Amino acid sequence: MFARSRIIKTTVSHFSSTGQNLGYKVAVLGAAGGIGQPLSLLLKLNPLVDKLALYDIVNTPGVAADLSHINTNAQVKGYKGPEALGAALEGADVVVIPAGVPRKPGMTRDDLFNINAGIVKTLAEGAAKHCPKAHLLIISNPVNSTVPIVAEVLKKHGVFDPKRLFGVTTLDVVRASTFVSSIKGSEALKNVAVHVIGGHSGVTIIPLLSQMTALNFSKDEVDQLTQRIQFGGDEVVKAKDGTGSATLSMAQAGARFTSSLLKALSGQKGMVEPTYVLSPVAADKGVDFFATFVELGKNGVEKIHPTGPMNAFEQKLFEAAIPELKKNISKGVEFAKK
Question: SS in 3 state form for 131-180?
Fold first, then answer.
């Protein structure tokens, strides 16, 4: 009796009070990779996902077959090779793109650019043609540059909607909350969202610790946390000893953002996540794309939150990030226009 009750609950939660199906088609591009596989697993468990389309150049039929044995609502199908990209994207409501090569020791995110930029551009072309109204979630690094690439491709096809394009920077906030917790020793802090603004690499990552008014940080703590939040990815690259970068934590962060967006699309209020979007926040500095907390809604971006108050130290971080962001964004735009 208990088992049956749980099954009924899972099925019913997939519908609105009016009986309308709230399920969505989510496509994962790069689904056989280090981020793509755990991300696809987490999305298979999401009750708002009806169809899960897994695309990559290799191995996706096997990944799809494996995931399809999990008893959740989502129907999974694998698509392999460039000729299958259109079918994977057709009818997608949300497209999550973790495709690309991982960062290795000694590499910066900019070092990844020449390889990953071409991959992302090709996938964006496919999305523009086959699901022009889909919400596109970009994980492929360097996010500071790949998001502008996607924007330019969509503009070229006349389908750019800034409310539907997101750079997934959730991992910066996940890390920040975890690192603050490690210093302050409270498990509860892992659920506190530190406001991290700017971009998604190095000095463009700006943690606003002063906004955590319930906590007091010493100068040494601020310096230590800021450095670790900005360059936390290097810890994983080093620990993996040349075999890759953050995959499991990035998959969790990507699934969290996707889940929040799906909830918002289905009408749930109060979904706020950090994300790198076309934003007015730093437009007066000549920076078109910027990450702050963003309220999500039925059309994607509902409200872009401002940075909020910054102390003198954070203001310096902000000023240091601006020229780097300008360079990253310009690099993406120029690549897309070639």
Answer: CCCCEEEECCCCHHHHHHHHHHHHHHCCCCCHHHEEECCHHHHHHHHHHH
Ordered by start, the domain boundaries in the chain are 20-167, 170-337
Pull the structure tokens for residue 145: 């540059």
The arrangement of secondary structure in 20-167, i.e. its CATH architecture, is: 3-Layer(aba) Sandwich (3.40)
Task: Tell me: cis bond preceding 132? Omega within 30 of 0 counts.
Answer: no
pTM, to two decimals: 0.91
The reply to whether domains 20-167 and 170-337 share a CATH topology is no
CA distances from 148 to 122, 138, 317 (A): 14, 10, 22
Burial of residue 221 (number of CB atoms within 10 Å: 0-12, 13-18, 19+): middle
Q: Are strands 271-278 and 289-297 parallel, antiparallel or unpaired?
A: antiparallel
Q: How far apart are CA 84 and CA 126, in angstroms?
A: 10
Q: What is the DSSP letter of 84?
A: G
Phi, psi of 96 (to 5 degrees): -110, 130
Catalytic residue (choose from 14, 195, 200, 305): 200
Q: CA–CA separation, 183 vs 281, rounded Å?
A: 30
Cβ atoms of residues 174 and 273 within 8 Å = no
Which residues make Cβ contacts (< 8 Å) with residue 86, sequence separation at least 6? 126, 129, 130
Q: What's the CATH number for 170-337?
A: 3.90.110.10
Tell me, yes or no, if 200 is annotated catalytic. yes
pLDDT digits (tens), the chain, 338 positions: 333 333 323 333 334 433 344 689 999 999 999 999 999 999 999 999 999 999 999 999 999 999 999 999 999 999 999 999 999 999 999 999 999 987 666 766 667 788 899 999 999 999 999 999 999 999 999 999 999 999 999 999 999 999 999 999 999 999 999 999 888 876 556 566 789 999 999 999 999 999 998 888 999 999 999 999 999 998 998 899 878 889 999 999 999 999 999 999 999 999 999 999 999 999 999 999 999 999 999 999 999 999 999 999 999 999 999 999 999 999 999 999 98
